[in-house]
Amino acid sequence: MAFAVTVALYASLVLILFCVLILLVCRMVRNRLDRLHSQRVKELRPLVLASAVSEDDEALEQLVQLDRRSWRMVEPSVLSLLSQLQGEAHEALTAVLVRRGIVDRALEDLGRRGRVRRARAAGVLALTGPTLRHDPVVGPRARQALETLLDDADPTVRAAVVRALGRFGDEAGARALLAHLSGRRQVASGLVSHALLRIAFPAVPGLLEAARSDDVQIRALALELLSLIGDRAAVPQLLEALRDDQGVVRASAAQALGQMGEHSAVDPLLIMLSTDTSPRVAAAAAEALGAIGDRRAIGSLASAVGRPHFRSAHAAAQSLLRLGPQGEETLRQLVRDEPTAEAHASEALAQLSLRQSAGRTTS
After folding, report:
1. Exposed, middle or buried by CB within 10 Å (0-12, 13-18, 19+), for 140?
2. Which of helix, strand or coil describes residue 188?
3. Any residues with CB less than 8 A from the CB of 76 and at least 6 apart, and which?
4. pTM over 0.90
5. Domain closes at, from 152, 183, 200
6. Taking burial as the number of CB atoms within 10 A of a residue's CB, which of 27, 142, 172, 311 is the most buried?
7. Are 41 and 74 in contact (CB under 8 A)?
8. Domain assignment of residue 86, given as a range
């Protein structure tokens, strides 16, 4: 009995040692393969960098002709570099991906099962989008496939598709994004906003339509994006939105006009500042008037500093600071003569004093 136990123990020990030996051999082989992989990637990196120079046709051709194993090694580097390129260099590397079938494979993967595969495919199309959008064959096909995936059940895939459509940068993609701000499978408004800002001017027609949406939040978002893009074609729509029945929309329109420095909005903003019952809207009007910088607003802003609502009174005092010496003198008069406005006016003047002191110190 004791002999059998001893034999079993020795056998177990031998088995353990054998397993450890196998693990060590596997580790050594893996480390060796990793070193070879790293060395090969290092050897191929100059080729990838040279391919980014569109004039180097030889390097581009070598990249296209790489064997499958070598291509798998450099593909992550190619995609990473593509995200940093523009113009002819971007077109050259995109052409490499098209010739190697990477774009076609991504288009196929968009319709396959597996959310990771679909999201990765959308990522490839996002990187190649600035060039593919000009391709009369691949561009429409890719955009249509991406728009279909805006209804994907997985939010990660939808987010990747939004980024891709933003990189395609055309009016059709912008309208598709705006259409999915509401519905059963909405897309996060922050992601859509970023994509629409990337699209910029081609997105303006869709944003102008969205500014008339029945959804209050969509109207407000559209007005904000129009102001950030800065297309003056949006000014009539923004002026009209100052009369919207929802305060959040009126406030967004006022902020937009202020950011654009639209002087034709001064009179409507003065009326809004004096008559609108919403403190949020009045504050937005005050901020807009300060941003536009029209000194006709000094009297109305001075009256607003004495109001009981903190937000609008504070905004009016800060806007007076932006109107130069006349605004500063008005604040000093408010400190002397208007007890209800003294706190906000004093705060604004204190901020001015600190900025002036800091300026003298740095100079």
Report:
1. middle
2. coil
3. none
4. no
5. 152
6. 142
7. yes
8. 77-134+144-152
